[in-house]
Specification:
By secondary structure, the chain is of the alpha/beta class. Helices cover 42% and strands 15% of the residues. The chain contains 15 helices and 15 strands. Strand 7, helix 8 and strand 8 (206-211) form a beta-alpha-beta unit. Helix 4 runs antiparallel to helix 13 and helix 7 (143-166) crosses helix 8 (179-193).
Length: 431
């Protein structure tokens, strides 16, 4: 009898819990996540629209006769295209990609396309992972994406080395969208750990821009490599926010809204402190750039604002219930809004009439601020007891320390010293 009398109370508690969840979810918008972040400058955000167009060009069968080009074109000189690999060339080892030498911007770019819903090899890459399966460089990474990154390095190591040595003043940029963003981010880490294979390239010459990034590495790695890896997120994009394994997302692609809603309810009930202390939980990599173009309870799009930070806690932990959660993942929209944001920032600079000398000083100041912010994020990760997080080196290097000099394969008991076997490091993705 007492149990029956208690049922109405349980129902009331359940209804109140659901009402609270709905209230928080409806008021939680993507803009709130980055409202305390700093505003990006023209200099640091300038490469993003250009790299988005390069990624879009990978979808073309013939770059000299483009079919899907944006209104202003790709901005590519076909004669500067070094190579182009298709699915036929990669044989399922990695998504298609191009290597392009951008002489106008003094940059060597390897751009990787996103998921192809019609290709089984892309699904195989996504499904090749289990929670905590692959440990690498003192953290955890997505196994399938790491294998794809290793495949690309093995295939293009000689080409990249030749270009890096031929153009010693050029940066080496890895970029990709969605599936390709995860491959590009992990490829960046593999290259940094194998710099001897690219002619001992300096770390500061290597960088990555992950567009609509997949959650591909644990929090300690995401923060540690924030000095060279940058992630770009458009407003409500679902992929950087959901900790649901990629393999589960794309298994249920046709019921994606249901999966996102259920995951949203689950994450609301899990304390963030518990999330941070799970060493196997994967995150969007590096420094985050958040393009915000919509406001809550208002129709239409507003002039986009780009915010940036290296957050440790509050790192896109909750899904936003929005009808734009999937459309904001599209590379076409990201390129369009990134270009709009860059034009607005450029117009503001012109209006302020900033002298060239002052712009150079601002770039130097920005570099120092980014370094300080990166170190502060590493220190905060230690304060929050993030697993495997360690203090930065006083000499400003992160790849040569003991904590990052080895990795373990899928078997946690087996390890490989990178210093003892440098030639085997690049083969990490092929095992």
């Amino acid at each position: 009898m007492s149990i029956i009398c208690g049922l109405p109370i349980l129902e009331c508690v359940y209804c109140l819990g659901c009402a609270r969840w709905g209230y928080k979810r409806c008021l939680h918008t993507a803009g709130h996540e980055s409202e305390n972040w700093g505003t990006a400058t023209v200099e640091e955000f300038a490469p993003v629209p250009r790299l988005c167009r390069l990624i879009l060009s990978v979808y073309e069968d013939d770059i000299r006769n483009p079919v899907w080009a944006p209104p202003e074109g790709y901005g590519i000189n076909p004669d500067w295209l070094i190579l182009r690999k298709t699915y036929k060339d990669t044989r399922g080892g990695a998504p298609p990609y191009i290597i392009y030498v951008d002489h106008d911007n003094v940059d060597i770019v390897l751009a990787i396309r996103g998921l192809n819903l019609a290709k089984e090899s892309d699904y195989a890459c996504l499904l090749d992972n289990k929670l905590g399966q692959r440990k690498f460089d003192g953290g955890y990474v997505h196994n399938g994406l790491l294998k794809a990154a290793g495949w690309v390095l093995e295939a293009e190591c000689d080409v990249l080395k030749e270009l890096v040595e031929k153009y010693p003043n050029y940066t080496l940029t890895f970029t990709g969208h969605s599936l390709g963003s995860g491959v590009a981010a992990l490829l960046t880490i593999v290259v940094v750990q194998n710099r001897d294979r690219l002619g001992n390239i300096d770390r500061h010459r290597v960088r990555c821009y992950a567009i609509a990034p997949a959650r591909c590495m644990s929090l300690n790695l995401a923060v540690r490599y924030a000095d060279i890896i940058n992630s770009v997120v458009l407003q409500d994009d679902f992929l950087p926010r959901t900790a649901t394994p990629l393999e589960d997302i794309f298994k249920s692609l046709f019921c994606l809204p249901c999966i996102l809603c259920l995951r949203c309810m689950r994450d609301t009930c899990i304390p963030e402190e518990r999330m941070l202390k799970d060493p196997r939980r994967l995150y969007a990599p590096g420094r985050l750039y958040h393009i915000v173009e919509r406001k809550p309870f208002r129709l239409g799009r507003f002039p986009p604002v780009v915010r940036t930070a290296v957050p440790v806690d509050g790192r896109f932990e909750h899904i936003v219930l929005s009808c734009n959660a999937t459309s904001d993942h599209a590379i076409i929209w990201i390129e369009k809004e990134a270009e709009r944001a860059l034009k607005l920032m450029s117009e503001k600079d012109k209006f302020m009439e900033i002298p060239a000398k002052q712009k150079m000083e601002r770039q130097e100041t920005l570099a120092r601020e980014h370094t300080q912010e990166h170190r502060a994020a590493l220190q905060r990760a230690i304060t929050l007891a993030v697993p495997h997080a360690f203090a930065p080196s006083p000499y400003g290097t992160f790849g040569d320390g003991e904590g990052s000099s080895s990795f373990a394969s899928g078997n946690k008991n087996s390890g490989l010293s990178m210093k003892d076997k440098p030639r085997e490091r690049g083969k990490v993705g092929m095992n």
